[in-house]
């Protein structure tokens, strides 16, 4: 059993038109909505005003709903951190003789491009500090050949330090210019995974006894992660039909970056924590784990797509005809927040990172076309998943703009006749009350962010500590330029067929 996404045939016009038709869908919906809303503000301001009140009421309820789930997720993190997962592994192995945890190996693939030793060493050290036996861990540091001689030097230094510390420590170099590949992370990790498959054959280790984790090069894992992952894998009778998702916190350099970036990065972490509670809607993101047997069957990651960390879920979803899921692991992995040499460069890079994440819209045409060719997935599940993907991307781009500006459109453009109506006179008050209540979620986020902050490595001024609270007043201000606009940018590029190339976020440690 194996699976690859169907690719458009170059000479098949039908394939091409289906692909382009789906690609233009997100951008077409977003721009049509924006243009039509402005037009109706002139022609039918009453309908726009009613829509805004209903939308803001809906969003107020959703903020409450998101906040409650976020708190539940946070509580579970604190509970799971206190559990001795190795003891639970031992217990389940004693109860079921065919599930001996000592027979499992963890394969960790860490792709890297031009990141320095100061970025890579903490990630590798976090593996060494794990409570899981290192003699059951295989680590691959996957370099790009096009990174040149500096990458070779870094590989030699790290191999000298970490060789012999695990069951095996391997270094791979992904060749440049392979036909059919783009310059994307998925091509590198796929090359490393194939090298791992050959290594496992040599060592007579079965694929079904290997759990593979792919981590960004700045990922520092919780020391209980692998023991917890082992237990979750063992207890799951459908273990090969699940991906396992830890909760990402952008904490490695959180004290060093600026307030705007902190608000964006912490908000991203909170979204993942919230999603973990409604795990039936989860899709893999950033660092995650899965069965190596399943990874081999789907022929690894796509080698020509940017959003490899999410599309890998959909490849597995199609392999098992809709019976593939994500199980949250309520332990955190820590990554770098965006940071560059100065404030302006940092903000520019933050925008580019958000746009790269937003480029996950490239998944939509791939998923939809796969749905069209798979008749074993129920129509209900196809519609549900297709809607979740599309609605989520549209909402990402439109919601901040609707909340910030659309309430004023009828007042600005509705004319004197509308502005004399009762609804026009009360619209600012109604929206003000709804948004004031919605601030409840912002205060909860502020307090939770303080609990999740790591201890600073050096002395931190009182002012710096105070900004960790005050910075949340920036949340409404950055929601559009660093939230909505990157998504609309990505949608517009796909609308006009201006496809993005993979952009590597610069890693800076100060």
Proportion of β residues? 5-15%
Give the helices and strands as they follow along the chain: HHHEHEHEHEEHEHEHHEHHHHHHHHH
What's the gyration radius in Å? 24 Å
What's the total helix number?
19
Question: How would you summarize the topology of this molecule?
Answer:
Elements: H1 13-43, H2 45-81, H3 85-95, E1 105-111, H4 117-128, E2 137-144, H5 149-162, E3 168-174, H6 185-202, E4 210-214, E5 220-221, H7 225-235, E6 242-249, H8 259-277, E7 288-291, H9 292-297, H10 308-319, E8 325-334, H11 343-358, H12 363-373, H13 379-405, H14 409-413, H15 415-419, H16 422-452, H17 462-470, H18 475-478, H19 480-495
Parallel strand pairs: 1-2, 1-4, 2-3, 6-8
Antiparallel strand pairs: 4-7, 5-8, 6-7
Helix pairs in contact: 1-2, 1-12, 1-13, 1-19, 2-8, 2-16, 3-7, 10-12, 11-19, 12-13, 13-19
